[in-house]
Amino acid sequence: MSEITDFLPGRLGRNDATLEKDDRADPRIVKALEAAGGLATGVDAIDPEASYEECLAYCSAFEEAAAEGNTLLSESLPVLESVESATEIIDGTDGNKLQLFIHRPKRRSGSVPCIVHTHGGGMVLMGATDPMFVRWRDSLADLGMVVVGVEFRNGGGRLGNHPFPAGLNDCASAVQWVHSNRDALGVSAIVISGESGGGNLSLATTLKANREGWVDQIDGVYACCPYICGQYADPPKPLLSLYENDGYMLSCRQMAALVKVYDPTNEHSTNPLAWPYHAQRADLEGLPPHVISVNELDPLRDEGLAYYRKLLAAGVPAFCRTVHGTPHAGDLSYPDITPEIYRDTLASMHGFISAL
Length: 356
Fold this sequence. Notes:
- This protein has 13 helices and eight strands.
- By secondary structure, the protein is α/β, with parallel strands linked by helices.
- It has an eight-stranded mixed beta sheet with strand order 1-2-4-3-5-6-7-8, sandwiched between helices.
- It has helices at residues 2-5, 27-35, 52-74, 131-141, 166-180, 182-185, 197-212, 241-244, 252-262, 281-284, 301-313, 330-333, 339-354; strands spanning 83-91, 97-105, 112-118, 146-151, 187-195, 220-224, 290-295, 318-323.
- The chain has a single domain (2-354), classed as Alpha/Beta hydrolase fold, catalytic domain (Rossmann fold, 3-Layer(aba) Sandwich), CATH 3.40.50.1820.
- The mean pLDDT is 94.
- Strand 5, helix 7 (197-212) and strand 6 (220-224) form a beta-alpha-beta unit.
- Helix 3 crosses helix 9 and helix 5 packs across helix 7.
């Protein structure tokens, strides 16, 4: 058996495996990450027993470093002249004001599909105005859709400190506003979609809608690399990718710190509205069609796959795709470096919503 274990993927086979040395990785992405110094370089070490305050400080440092890397990856891209954008301020359910960024194709006729976009960042950092998220919304709108970016409250960082369920409530408010304004916006089907922490919020918003009786306002869900387990301090053994790809851009230690910022008292550790991985059949029955998209070299890969299988078992129309050669959110992050991968995810999302 030792001869076989030597060939197990990633850190299952070698404790010192890295993304840069993994022959499954797309070499173009590896080169780009090395040139940019990696994502969030210098903030990858934090004590698993760190306090809430220490985790908040870590979030701020992580956010700053990630913003620098994302700007480097986005600054050379041309402006998409086919898209126009506007900002809307709405009332949130918690008495707060909520900013929405609405991207539309300049030329359109009749109603078009709409994507409500919930950005990544583990629900605790980054924002809808970050260049990579603006570019993603523009790219979707360029295909003929209306895209609404949600500036939800974060658990930490510059838009914090607002632990669960603040951000979730904001995403629910955004979906309900879009539904109430379908005619004014000129939209037909509404899909909620996000990546990483935004994938969590897309799934959790739909679970919340199902519990509260307004799930018919959501026509579909497209979650990319969803961050939904929450148990990163002691990763569940069935989720092998948390071991196989640990440290590939993300580490379990990093994610455990983000969890503490989102749920400081850990009282929601198995609440599916905080961590959809823990949803039961009754939570899932009656949900609209889903697509779960995961990245081969992502620590989060297997929790997305597990959620997809739960959806199928509950009778939910669902499809899953694995984007090979890519790390966490790698199909969304490098439009000029791996354009065919970026375009394929755009096309997948457009095809899904167009068929609803």
